[in-house]
Structures are given as C-alpha cells and as structure tokens.
Write a structure and sequence with these properties.
Distance between the termini: 10 Å
Main location: membrane
Membrane topology: Multi-pass membrane protein
Number of strands: 2
Protein name: Nucleotide-sugar transporter
Shape: globular
Helix content: over 70%
Bound molecules: cytidine-5'-monophosphate
Order of helices and strands: EEHHHHHHHHHHHHHHH
Transmembrane segments: 172-189, 209-231, 243-261, 281-300, 307-325
Strand order of the largest sheet: 1-2
Subcellular location: Membrane
Strand content: under 5%
Length: 366
C-alpha cells in the first residue's frame, strides 16, 4: 500500500474525510443562505460563482501540480557542471533554466494526448454545480442535503454499467431504502411548501428544486464514475487531472454567462455586470465550493468511496442541526423518519467485506 502522508501526526486520509463532512454541510447552509436571504432582484449570478469556482480551483491545483513536479523530479533534469559549492536545494530548483524545464514538463503533462478525456466530466460537473444553485434556492438546506444522497444510487448504477462493478444483495436493498427515505423526505417538503415560502424572502419551488437535485444526482454519478475511470486507466497525476478538469470547464462555464448577458442586453465585457450583487456570501459560497473540489480530490487519492459515503452521511446530520439552529427549520416526524432511513441505507450500503475476490470493490485508491 502507498505510504499515506500525515499532518501533525494525523493521516491526511482522516483529515480530508472530516474536512469533507464539514465542507458538505457548510456548503449546503451557506449556498442556501446566500440565495434566499436577499430579495430576488439582489441575487448574485450562479453562473459567475461556478466560473470563479473553476478558475480558483484550477489555479490552486496548478500550483500543487507544479510543486509536485518540482519536488519529485529535480534530479532527473540534467544540471550543468558548476564548480562552485552547491546551493541549497530550494535555490537550485529556482534557477530560470530549471524553472523553464519544469514548466515545459508540466505543459507536456497538461496537454497530453489523453487530456480530452477530462472534457466529459468537466462539462457534467459544470452542469451539476449550476443545478446545485437551483436546488439550494428552492429547497430547505437539510431537505436538499438528504435528497442529494440519491447520488449514491446513480453512482452505483453507473459503476455497474461503466466499471462493471458488482453489488452485494444488501447493497441493492440499501439502494431501495435510500429511494424510499428520499421519497418520505420529499413528501414532507411538499406538505411544508407554504411554510417555507413564508419564512424565506423567495417563494421556493419544491418541485423545481427536487428536479434539479435529481438531475444533479445523475450528473454526479456519471461524472464521478467517468473521472474514476480516467484516473484508474491512466498514469496522470491527480493535480494535473484537476487542472485539466478546470480548463475544460471554462468554456461551458462562460457560455451561459454570454447567453444570459446577450438575452438581458447587459454588457458581457463589463466585469461589474458579472459581479453584480456578488457580495461576501457569494464569495464564501465559492470559497467553500473550491475547498470541496480540492478535498474531494484528496479523498479520492488518500481514501476511497466507502469512507467518502460516511463523510457525506455525517454531513447530513451536521446540516440538519445547523438548519434547525439557523433557519428555524421545523423537525417533523416524517423528516426524522426519512433522514433516519437515508442514514441507515448509507450505512448498510457501505457494509461490505473488505476481502478481495468477491468482485465488489468501490475503492478508488490511486
Ligand atoms: O456531489 P459530488 O461528490 O459529485 O460533488 C463533487 C464536486 O467536487 C463537484 O462540485 C465537482 O466540481 C468537484 N470536483 C472537483 N474535482 C474533482 C472531482 C470533483 O472539483 N477531481
């Protein structure tokens, strides 16, 4: 097994999982609050937020990718003979010629012949990230979080179809319970629709929100499995893959901004039009989403989908408690029942023998 890096003695694997759980809940809460706490005329552009997310994540991943090339292969690069005493390693690696070599190596990796493969998950993730805003604007934060668990179902379906993974009978039962649990939560959402409208500045449309969640679950499953396929079937560095993902996201991110600005007659070239109403809460949402993308990458690298599922289900409880405290979310019996079924189904789905030879492996270790 590859050696797992640690921070202050704690394996990065556990740090990334706990961070993902907290990040998942924080994103649900902050995204919901940033969308519904202002009048409709002052709502910021979700398309701009998704674009900022991809740019920031891409830049951070680029820095990681560059530093990994720097640290892992300086000695493989021929250094000209120098009779002077050797400089510290850091200074040696900062000479213009070595920097140029590393930039060239990074570019060669980034624009490798198979880089186009990332275009498919990139487009799907852009659609998914936009749908998340629609869902968060139209559903209670906790309801969105629970309904979004259906992505386990779509991930399983795409894993079976595309990666030819086999599921245990208990996992199929867990998937059935998951669907039932989400259905129960959905029934209570419909019943509370009028209350929700009264509480928030916007009139939330539960049907619209639920359809957005269903579509987001579909893209999440397909993009996740496709990304897993690319990672497993090639040698590319994870951070390089992340940069490729961000680069391919740029076009689908910019397209809706151009379309909406031409439709509304506003000037696309004006930065102030893009960032209209883009206040601290919008930036906070983008920041938490950037963190999520980076942590997801780390979880895929240092952990696996089994533990990722636990992190997500833990975040349901955190979001639920935060919703009660922050949004005056009313605890109903049906919500408790639906959430309990979803949590138990997630737990049951993740119960599987860790023995090889059963043909059941959801691990995404790289
Ligand atoms: O809900 P789900 O786990 O599918 O969400 C994954 C999120 O992580 C998406 O917002 C996607 O843009 C992001 N991501 C990323 N880099 C990856 C994989 C996912 O930024 N390598």
């Amino acid at each position: 097994a590859p050696s797992v890096p640690s921070l202050w003695g704690v394996p990065l694997k556990y740090i990334s999982l706990v961070t993902l759980a907290v990040q998942n809940s924080a994103l649900t809460i902050i995204m919901h609050y940033s969308r519904v706490s202002t009048p409709p005329s002052q709502v910021y552009s979700a398309a701009t937020a998704v674009l900022m997310n991809e740019i920031l994540k891409g830049v951070i991943s680029l820095i990681f990718a560059f530093s990994r090339i720097d640290a892992s292969s300086p000695l493989s690069i021929p250094v000209p003979f120098n009779p002077e005493p050797p400089k510290p390693r850091f200074l040696r690696s900062c000479t213009p010629s070595l920097l140029l070599v590393r930039v060239k190596k990074l570019c060669a990796e980034l624009f490798s012949p198979d880089c186009w493969k990332l275009s498919i998950p990139a487009i799907l993730y852009v659609i998914q990230n936009n749908l998340q805003y629609v869902a968060a604007s139209n559903l209670e934060a906790a309801t969105f979080q629970v309904s979004y668990q259906m992505k386990i179902l779509t991930t399983a379906a795409f894993s079976v179809m595309m990666l030819r993974k086999r599921l245990l009978s208990t996992q199929w039962i867990a998937l059935l319970f998951l669907a039932i649990g989400v259905g129960i939560v959905q029934i209570q959402t419909g019943a509370c629709k009028d209350d929700a409208s009264a509480v928030d500045a916007h009139s939330m449309n539960a049907t619209k929100g639920f359809l957005a969640v269903v579509a987001a679950c579909f893209t999440s499953g397909l993009a996740g499995v496709y990304f897993e396929m690319v990672l497993k079937n090639s040698q590319g560095d994870l951070w390089v893959r992340n940069v490729q993902l961000s680069l391919f996201s740029l076009l689908p991110c910019i397209a809706p901004i151009i379309v909406s600005s031409s439709g509304s007659g506003s000037n696309f070239g004006s930065v102030s039009a893009l960032f209209h109403n883009f206040g601290p809460w919008a930036w906070a949402t983008v920041g938490v989403q950037v963190l999520g993308g980076l942590v997801t990458a780390m979880v895929i690298k240092y952990s696996d989908n089994i533990l990722k599922g636990f992190a997500t289900s833990l975040s349901i409880v955190l979001s639920f408690l935060a919703s009660v405290a922050l949004f005056d979310f009313h605890i109903t019996f049906t919500f408790m029942l639906g959430s309990a079924i979803v949590l138990n189904a997630t737990w049951l789905y993740n119960q599987q023998p860790r023995r090889v030879g059963l043909g059941v492996s959801r691990d995404t270790k790289t």
